[in-house]
Design brief:
The protein has about 475 residues and is an alpha/beta fold. Strand 10 and strand 11 form a beta hairpin. The longest helix has 24 residues. It is globular and about 65 Å long. The protein starts with 7 loop residues before the first helix and ends with a helix. It binds glutamine. Glutamine binds next to loops.
Amino acid sequence: MGESFISAREVAAGVRAGEWTARHVADEHLAAVAERDGEIHAFLHVDPDAVRAAADRIDAAVAAGDDPGPLAGVPVALKDNLCTRGVPTTCASRILEGWRPPYDATVVERLVAAGAVVVGKTNLDEFAMGSSTENSAFGPTRNPLDPSRVPGGSSGGSAAAVAAGFAPLALGSDTGGSIRQPAALCGVVGLKPTYGRVSRHGLVAFASSLDQIGPFTRSVADAALALDVIGGHDPLDATSSPSPQPDHLAAVDSGVDGLRVGVLSEMLDMDGVAPEVVARVREAAEALAAAGAEVVEVSVPAVIYGLSAYYLIAPAEASSNLARFDGVRYGLRVDAPTTNEMMVATRTRGFGPEVKRRIMLGTYALSAGYYDAFYGQAQRVRTLIARDFAAAYERVDVLLSPTSPTTAFAFGDKTADPLTMYLNDVCTIPSNLSGDPAISVPFGTGGDDLPVGVQVMGPALAETDLLRTAAVLEGAAP
Ligand code: GLN
């Protein structure tokens, strides 16, 4: 299985140079999946024949003297809320069982055009609502570093796939932390780009003003390369940024000399943030200072209200987005005498408990008498958070914080009370509310030798600063 742990850049370089075939790479990764995914359950869908056929097409291109692209032969795993033409896309929900999208998400088209080979679709919390994959209708994913622990969520399958050596690159979606938190818990790199940097066309919507697609990788350079491939304007997503992309990969090794780094004080003082996690963040700040950065403490006062605002805005948008699953247009239909009864029966059977909770919370927050007190108020808090971040970014280039308050927790630890689970996202949610980019990079370990992730945040479209900071941390990690 050793060979399945090489980086995306190494795989592509070898395939382009004819040192090894995409078919060989695919077989190695399929063997790793066959050996261990019965236990890990990172994937909901793998079609080995289709994987081999895709790899053979890359090899044929190389043999014909064509360059398949910067991801030549790189196995990629896709969160199962990304549309794949003709391939089941379930969002880990019963309500989408049997549905096959008629088109590919833009990110999938771009990966394939760059030479990537899709290995399969990964497990998630149903409709990306959760922080542990325990909300999947098809059973949880296990953390490859300790199978008695959760991999985080909601993109737990994608994080686990990368950590287990099933693919050097996976895509996830991040609405409140769903790329960064599982990356932290599985010891891999996870990047949430700026809202609008990556097209959402073909991502099944959870909360449209917060959702963003991004990569999981085992190195910072691979994350930069992945962003170079999937980012950039897409006319099919009206919120997609028209500004041209820099070359992220080229910037990765430029160091942090003179970069102004702020340690975000509120996120070190928050309730529930483990002392070992705070210690790793402080060590990360010291490592950056040693590498030439100017490090200061910075306050971003409104971030402490992020969680409350998010749990009104995200469910409100979800209640509206999920209205489309009505038994008529997609997947499951439970027959009943009238249309109304059919819809009720379909939604009652098709959605799991957390999705129903969010739909009810969101519907309530948007209802006529309460709209301004809940949804309107949350939107005002969102503006305050964006303003406080903007003020901080006048003083510093990037901010440092924990990604997740703790290392990977055990199954069942946080399922009794929804609020306990929601608290996992205190440090990640604020960047979704402001729309700014953030990355989680592994930096040492906490209790039980499990990985700790340090989060680097920055202003809109400052991904290159995030990536070069993360690269320094990667090099300095204990
Ligand atoms: N855990 C958060 C939630 O349950 C974030 C999910 C996400 O980013 N998709 O909403």
